[in-house]
Amino acid sequence: MNRFLLVLLACVGCLASRSVASAAERPDIVVFLSDDHTWRDSSVYGSDEIETPNMARVAAAGMTFDQAFVASPACAPSRAALLTGLYPANNGAEPNHSRPRADIKKLPAYLQQLGYEVVSFGKVGHYKQTTEYGFDLAQNFNYHEDTAVPNALKWLRERDDSRPLCLFVGTNWPHVPWPEQTGEFNANNVQVPSHHVDTPQTRAARAKYLAAVRIMDTELGQVFDLAREKLGNDTFFLHTSDHGAQWPFGKWNLYEEGIRTPLIVSWPGQVQPNTRSDAMVSWIDILPTLVDVAGGEPPSAIDGRSFLPVLSGEQNKHRDVILTMHSGDGDKNIFPIRSARTSDRWKYIRNLHPEFRFTSHVTEIAGRAGYWESWVEQALHSSQAKSKVQRYLQRPAEELYYLADDPYEQNNMISDPSQSERVAALRAAVDQWTAQTHDTLAYYNAPKPIVSDKTPNIVNVFIDDMGWSDVSCFGGDVVQTPNIDRLASEGIKFTQYYVNSPICSPSRVALTTGQYPQRHRISSYLANRQSNRKRGIANWLSPKAPVLARELNAAGYATGHFGKWHMGGQRDVGDAPLIDRYGFDRSLTNFEGLGPRVLPLKDAYDGSEPQPHDLGSANLGQGPIRWEDRSVVTAAFVGDAVSFIDQSQVLKKPFYINLWPDDVHSPFFPPEVLRDATGESKRELYYAVLKAMDEQLGVLFDRIRNDPDLKENTLIVFSSDNGPEPGAGSAKPLRGSKTYLYEGGIRSPLIVWGPGVLADDAAGTVNSTSVFSAIDLNRSLYSITGTPLPEKAVLDGEDLHETLLGNANESRTAPIFWRRPPDRPGTKQEPNSDLAMREGKWKFHLNYDGSGAELYDLNTDVSESNNVADANKDLVARFKKMLLAWNSELPKDAGDPAFKQTDSTSALPSTQFVNPIAEGADPWLVRDPNAERYLWCFSDGNRGIAIHTTDNITSLGEKHIVWRAPETGPYSREIWAPELHYLDDRWHIYFAGSDGKNENHLAYVLRSESNDPLGPYKLQGPFATGDGDDGRSPNLWAIDMTVLEHQGRRYAIWSGWDAPGTDQQYLYIAPMKSPTQLAGPRVRICDNDDYLWERVEPKPSERGLAEGPQVLKHGKRTFVIYSCGASWLPTYKLGQLELVGDDPLDPALWQKKDRPVFQATAETYGVGHSCFVQTIDGKQWWHVFHAKRDREPGWRRSVFVQPMRFRPNHSPMFGKPVAAGVPLDLPSGESSPKLKLPYKASLKNPAKLSDGSYYGHHQFISHDDAGVHLGVIPETPINAYRSGEKWMLGGELPADFEAAVTIDFRGDADARDAGLLFRTTAAAVGFDAQRGYFAGLIPRDNRVIFGRTDGENWREIARADLQIDPNVAHRFRVQVKGDRFEVFDNGKLVLTSRDAHYATGGIGLRVVNTHAVFSDLSIEPL
């Protein structure tokens, strides 16, 4: 046995040996843990790039360890080792996020037995696992809960306990995400480590990282100082970090930057100040050391040993070898490693599976690190960068470094013959250690294998709406397509290949999944939610579907999608999964998907401005967007695809690429030079686009063909997703086009190219016999690439890879089946069959009900012109049975008469309601302390203030104008965000007003002259909300004032500008002398741009904006919920501040939550300016907020209410914004009573409208001597919008009744609908936002109509012609009995109909884009 081996095995064998130290008294202990801090990045450890003055102060007061190590370079196992004193293999916490075994005694228990109070603030264990370690108190342990240190300081200041204390404080810094504000650290001046790739992105990230280190150092100093102040100078203070930073070769690695850690100990009187130790210590040694320091007996049954003798100066050595392990981190890092590091600075690393690719969060989460992509990009042009990138991703089986000469571990000496003896000793040491710790050497989760360089690359080119005979190699004679033709001449043409649907989305689903698209409820093109629901189809492809790209990615492929997606993320479906959820490393799509996208501009070259064509995609967010002329969008996709190929070669990975252009889908916009040659006809434009697309695709084809490595190892598959759009391309001689189940809709040209992959004699051949489809192509690619099939999924496709490669001429054995899109039944002249199938030479068509059988022999009748069904009845019977059986196994859609809509459109129970309940912005709702009612407060037309009195949270009730602005003056216009507060036995309405110029907005208050909230009021103000001690030097812009009452004092909080004219909104606070006067200068509570999400748009270049502060108190906690972002955009949201001390005027005591507490969903967006109210019975809390009506920039908004609750710790839980039309239970204490009949109301002044609720823009209703005006167009509309204004009478009607109302159209012969809603529930703001019936008159069309709405859509049931004179009043009457409805106009029966859909509900008045006057409403039971 050699000398190295004897020494190392002796070291490994004495893991349990220890040194005993005792203490006369038990000192207080404070441990400060940083998170992801590389030891090199501090001045204490030699950095001249960043000063860490507080680390230096602790070091000056104690001992700095130069060779301290963690047990594992990932958070959870590292911390578990510290808190158990055991190696990860011994405690069970090996991969990140795992936890040690519950039966193991943890550090707190050892110290508690010695009489200690053991407390934890912040990240001490791995986030929420902290509570499992047995601390007496554990708080603020959530991800980046950056209130941990302030709360620890507050707790320590207030602590009154005689027990000795062990306090752990875990900061989240410098763990990612690093701060956006870098302060003193300029990216141009940072020092990029030599083993990193120096790019601008690296420098920017490093500046942020250093700023995070600075925050950590500041917090360290705060804890160190208070520990000395509160606990005394004899406190034992230890600072260390759980491992290195999240940089390549750092965290998750066993290189020095991953496992070596700062460790500094201060203990006045026991540890000599300003000393350094070269003794090697491990984090497993901290537990026994703390027990030793506390005067206890360090446990002997653990792996750690106390290093107290080193601290006391008795010894200068501790360990001769440091043994570390890493087992992985979730699905981003699956790479087990073991290492031994000696005191004479040799490092041995064993990579247990060098056949795995080393990946991490740095490489796998695109854009998160912000710099890795730039490393790969630079590697395309720099051999040095390429070497660094490849070294990170691919590791040898073993590594050996001499750190004294090679501190960054760049020179692997494992093969150096002179080191063979040392290598043998180190191998044996690791072997013995893994055996001793019962290390299973396991890996967790599925690894990313390193794939053989013989594995073929795949490029899947899928054209949009191109006809079977459009390209010249398939007989096209309009334009030449030389680049596509060359593929065919060098590859194989297949003439009997099919797609699995004649329309975009389902065709793409089939190619993507290898399954019939109907299995995924996608049988037509995906559109907006309402359209999808009506057609019975999904909004997106489930990420759980079997996806070829995902399996290829798991097998080691680089996967990219470039082009049209159309499997989710289109129109208004902004919450669909991003494309990377389906297994793609990188994507660039168009307006039919989410993530990075290029959106088209349509330029007709006629001198007019190019027009965007994005179908709402630009409003969805969810990825960076760039705009390109539609004629070069394919070039953009090709450019990204070529770049992806380049990067894949650098990364030594085979690639799979979807290149799915959408050029030849309408609208057609060819380049100018080609457009000029057309006559502007649809067909000519189409072919000009096709020609341009061929030219742009040539760049991709040439990139592959001209690279010898790629040419010999790449397969290109070229096809179209369905037939041509009628009037554009050609499918001749095939019958039909896009959407049809005839051959022209579903047969696709297919070209397979791959000189080094195809059979030797395949080039230029034509396969005209093999019949198969896209699902078979999908399945075959698994075999061609050697990729395992997805687990727990059965593919419909068959393996025909030998046919695709030219080695066989096999066909699919099972029939191919089709179902038409539900919204494409065809025309009278050319009906579309519901179902179709192909078996052998036969093509069979059928309808759902078994009718319409058509049978064609495609060998002799490819045009499907000779139906031979009658002559082949046996075949028809067999095919009919097979086809109907196949269809019966799949989910139905709306094309099938047997389809039943799953969404409920029944009447809403009287115990429920839906949103939005009203139109308006900046809603304010408060309980009346002097009466059992609620009071709403709104701006009225920006020229006054209205208070609504109501018994219900869910309706506004009766409106009262309590104040009108004067015609001129400083508060005559733009009356914003009034709030009603009851203070000192008087009501106060705080609001902002101006003279019509926004920059002149100031805060005012109306004070009531009695305790009646309806007034009268006297105006006071403006408040002194500006600079200087008087607040008026100068007085400054202020809006959204609210009142905070705290510990017997009052404070005003508002949103204000920092200086005249800056338009920079911050939150300010000032003490109040009285409810109408401030008592001191303003104080800015916080910055408005600490986080990107607070900015007008989430970009570093955008300004922050904070407004709408609202006080929320619960238990003993005080919060301010504020609105941020841009109120005019869908991204408006809520942030949260908490007062963590006694003085609200101290900005340091306001702690901001690091993420929004309430933000947009796909359905409800632009949410903000909230208030919060308890129900009258005190049982519930409700959240009141406004949301935008549409995604366009602007201020058209409506009011939502939804329940909220509080956690046991009294922090608020807002949930997600409820969607419009979603039923919610009524607030506690509310009910919907039956309407008492008979009922009569003149609806004219002075009669009040307190019996009902209005749904519509507040300026579109008025009330005078003539009656109730609905649909009024105001002289000065404020953010106005039409919404089918309605006034609903409160209460439920009996099933049978007669109702009449007088309608005056005011002489408007162009008037639209006005009439009665009945049997109506679920009323909300919106044209068809109610469930019930409507009968009305339409003077414009001289028609009476009757129909029903389901909350979203109108369905007409009956109509009748009727001469309607708009100059006379119409007594309009409906009689309802069972399912029979009769409609009368001026006593004449004008319409009769039956319908049984709705049986109960209320009654109301409604107009559609019309101003009508209603009066004399009467209702009688029948």
Q: From the alpha-carbon coordinates, what is the Rg to the nearest angstrom?
A: 37 Å
DSSP summary: helix tally: 26
- Cα(first) to Cα(last) distance is 107 Å
Count of β-strands: 67
**What proportion of the residues form beta strands (DSSP E)?**
25-35%
The CATH homologous superfamily of the largest domain is named: Alkaline Phosphatase, subunit A
As for the number of domains, it is: 5
Textual characterization of the structure:
With 1422 residues, the chain is an alpha+beta fold. Helix content is 18%, strand content 28%. Strands 13, 14, 15, 16, 20, 21, 22, 23 and 24 form a 9-stranded mixed beta sheet that branches. The protein has an 8-stranded mixed beta sheet with strand order 4-3-5-1-6-7-2-8, with helices on both faces. α2 packs across α7 (200-231) and α12 packs across α13. The longest helix has 32 residues, at 200-231.
Secondary structure layout:
Blueprint: H1 3-13, E1 29-34, H2 53-60, E2 63-69, H3 75-84, H4 88-91, H5 107-113, E3 117-122, E4 137-139, H6 148-158, E5 165-170, H7 200-231, E6 236-241, H8 256-259, E7 260-266, E8 275-282, H9 286-293, H10 308-311, E9 321-326, E10 337-342, E11 346-351, H11 361-364, H12 372-379, H13 383-393, E12 398-402, H14 420-436, E13 457-463, H15 482-490, E14 492-498, H16 504-513, H17 529-535, H18 548-554, E15 558-563, E16 586-588, E17 597-602, E18 611-612, E19 625-629, H19 633-650, E20 655-660, H20 672-675, H21 682-705, H22 708-711, E21 714-720, H23 743-746, E22 747-753, E23 765-767, E24 772-773, H24 774-785, H25 801-804, E25 816-819, E26 835-839, E27 842-846, E28 854-857, H26 873-888, E29 912-913, E30 918-919, E31 924-927, E32 934-939, E33 944-950, E34 958-964, E35 973-983, E36 986-994, E37 1002-1008, E38 1017-1020, E39 1038-1046, E40 1049-1057, E41 1065-1074, E42 1077-1078, E43 1083-1084, E44 1106-1114, E45 1117-1124, E46 1133-1139, E47 1150-1152, E48 1168-1174, E49 1181-1188, E50 1197-1206, E51 1212-1213, E52 1224-1225, E53 1239-1241, E54 1252-1255, ...
Parallel strand pairs: 1-5, 1-6, 2-8, 3-4, 3-5, 13-20, 13-21, 14-23, 14-24, 15-16, 15-20, 17-19
Antiparallel strand pairs: 2-7, 6-7, 9-10, 10-11, 11-12, 14-22, 17-18, 21-22, 25-26, 26-27, 27-28, 29-52, 30-50, 31-32, 32-33, 33-34, 35-36, 36-37, 37-38, 39-40, 40-41, 41-42, 41-43, 44-45, 45-46, 46-47, 48-49, 49-50, 50-51, 53-67, 54-57, 55-56, 56-67, 57-66, 58-63, 58-67, 59-60, 59-66, 60-61, 61-62, ...
Helix pairs in contact: 1-14, 2-7, 6-7, 12-13, 15-21, 16-24, 19-21
